[in-house]
């Protein structure tokens, strides 16, 4: 999924965006605004979950579906979204994704019952799966040299900032005008990005020898297989090991097995070429991503729920309480990705960062059941967790790209991105064991979930230490 080299500019120089000439400023504005929406909607919803649960009488199972209805299509289709941009045009797919995303947000804002809300959330995931991969490819086409590096840095920083402020803005919306306005407020931003892209972004396609395959069978099998497995995991704590639940679990596993067989048969034409996992370092990085982002994804859903339901925080206060985590992560990631990696090396940073994440989860695991003090009990855990993730995120991204060589760098990045989304999807599916099984002792369930996070982070550190051999 590597971007083709830009063609010579044929439009008039005094008319930015005309002909084949991209308006660089407009291109950056459109892609930053568009791609930030995926971070915003993914984060903003967490502080609104208790209110939405109460309004729709959805229960803990409904809470999980509000989150996973978005994550499921996003994780299953993000690779296909990038491939569609390669084949049909990045600008075209980017704009189509923005339109789908806008319609989905309107549907969520006016949802008159729970199924309509879930449909809107699923459409948001489809739109985000089209926006996220094509936005970065558009930047790669519209910029070159040092300008490209600066543009990608701006794109990444904007995503981090959007993820940081989204919970606070979402909390303000929930407490002042209602959760529906959190969705409605996103629509003008999406349409603004669409309008700017229309006049500023030039159309681009991947070269024939670097187009990502349009693997419809792979996308369908993985998406349906994941749906059945996730449905079974969400239903299990509430319904028990009934025949429908077990059939869904077995059927989903069977479909995912068929997906693996189909991908193996397609070889390099597959959405997920399995030969790439023969690379020991890439396999280790993929395992680290699955474990670490699974632990983190579960926490970012559960923590605001606990703050609001158990500790009596308002939605705004809960968003503000979580704010130190994304702020520290965003501020330190660039420094860690350069200076610290150069000094200590990728393997040590990934191992040490995962151990810090384990320590952060350990601090959450010992939060007392009563008389919880934010400064003494929660803030230190958030800061240590942020330090650990800052030490991990940038080295992980670079290591993924370096582990497989130039031929598969785009595919490897896309697969790793999909794995991180699916990790959060699976983690949220297991939260039913906490929300339902610990309904009378939510703080005890939170401590148990944090202890599981410790284990996952330690396994991540082991994977980095044992399997990662990429050279810095």
What does this molecule look like?
With 472 residues, the chain is mainly alpha-helical. The chain is 78% helix and 0% strand. Mean pLDDT is 85; it is low at 1-19.
Features:
disordered N terminus, 472 residues, globular
Task: Briefly summarize what is shown.
The chain contains 18 helices and no strands.
Write the layout of secondary structure elements.
Blueprint: H1 24-44, H2 49-56, H3 59-88, H4 90-109, H5 114-142, H6 145-176, H7 180-184, H8 186-200, H9 216-239, H10 243-266, H11 280-309, H12 315-322, H13 324-344, H14 346-365, H15 374-403, H16 409-430, H17 432-435, H18 442-467
Shape: globular
Radius of gyration: 21 Å
Can you give the helix content as a percent range? over 70%
Q: Compute the number of helices.
A: 18
**Low-confidence stretches at least 5 residues in length (pLDDT < 50)?**
1-19
Main β-sheet description: none
């Amino acid at each position: 999924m590597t971007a083709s080299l830009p063609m010579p500019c044929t439009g008039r120089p005094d008319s930015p965006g005309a002909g084949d000439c991209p308006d660089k400023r407009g291109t950056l504005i459109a892609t930053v605004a568009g791609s930030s929406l995926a971070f915003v909607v993914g984060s903003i919803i967490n502080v609104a979950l208790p209110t939405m649960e109460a309004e729709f009488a959805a229960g803990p199972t409904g809470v999980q579906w509000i989150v996973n209805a978005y994550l499921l299509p996003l994780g299953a289709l993000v690779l296909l979204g990038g491939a569609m941009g390669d084949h049909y045009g990045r600008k075209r797919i980017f704009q189509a994704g923005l339109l789908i995303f806008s319609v989905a947000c309107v549907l969520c804002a006016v949802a008159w019952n729970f199924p309509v809300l879930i449909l809107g959330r699923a459409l948001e995931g489809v739109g985000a799966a089209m926006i996220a991969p094509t936005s970065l490819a558009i930047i790669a086409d519209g910029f070159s040299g040092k300008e490209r590096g600066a543009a990608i840095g701006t794109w990444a920083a904007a995503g981090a900032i959007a993820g940081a402020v989204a919970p606070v803005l979402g909390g303000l919306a929930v407490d002042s005008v209602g959760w529906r306005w959190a969705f409605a407020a996103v629509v003008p931003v999406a349409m603004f990005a669409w309008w700017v892209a229309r006049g500023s972004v030039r159309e681009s396609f991947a070269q024939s020898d670097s187009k990502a395959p349009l693997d419809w069978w792979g996308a369908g099998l993985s998406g349906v297989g994941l749906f059945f497995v996730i449905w079974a995991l969400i239903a299990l704590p509430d319904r028990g090991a009934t025949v429908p639940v077990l059939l869904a679990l077995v059927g989903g596993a069977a479909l995912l097995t068929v997906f693996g067989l189909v991908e193996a048969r397609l070889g390099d034409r597959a959405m997920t070429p399995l030969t790439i996992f023969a690379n020991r370092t890439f396999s280790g990085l993929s395992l680290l991503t699955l474990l670490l982002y699974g632990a983190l994804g579960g926490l970012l859903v559960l923590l605001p729920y606990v703050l609001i339901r158990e500790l009596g925080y308002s939605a705004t206060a809960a968003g503000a309480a979580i704010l130190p985590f994304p702020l520290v992560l965003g501020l330190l990631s660039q420094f860690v990705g350069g200076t610290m990696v150069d000094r200590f090396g990728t393997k040590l940073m990934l191992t040490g960062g995962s151990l810090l994440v384990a320590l952060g989860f350990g601090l959450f695991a010992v939060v007392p059941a009563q008389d919880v003090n934010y400064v003494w009990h929660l803030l230190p855990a958030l800061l240590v967790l942020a330090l650990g993730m800052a030490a991990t995120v940038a080295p992980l991204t670079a290591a993924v790209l370096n582990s497989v060589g130039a031929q598969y760098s785009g595919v490897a990045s896309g697969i790793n991105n999909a794995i991180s989304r699916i990790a959060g999807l699976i983690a949220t599916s297991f939260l039913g064991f906490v929300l339902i099984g610990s309904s009378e002792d939510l703080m005890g369930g939170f401590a148990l979930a944090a202890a599981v996070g410790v284990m996952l982070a330690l396994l991540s550190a082991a994977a980095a230490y044992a399997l990662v051999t990429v050279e810095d």
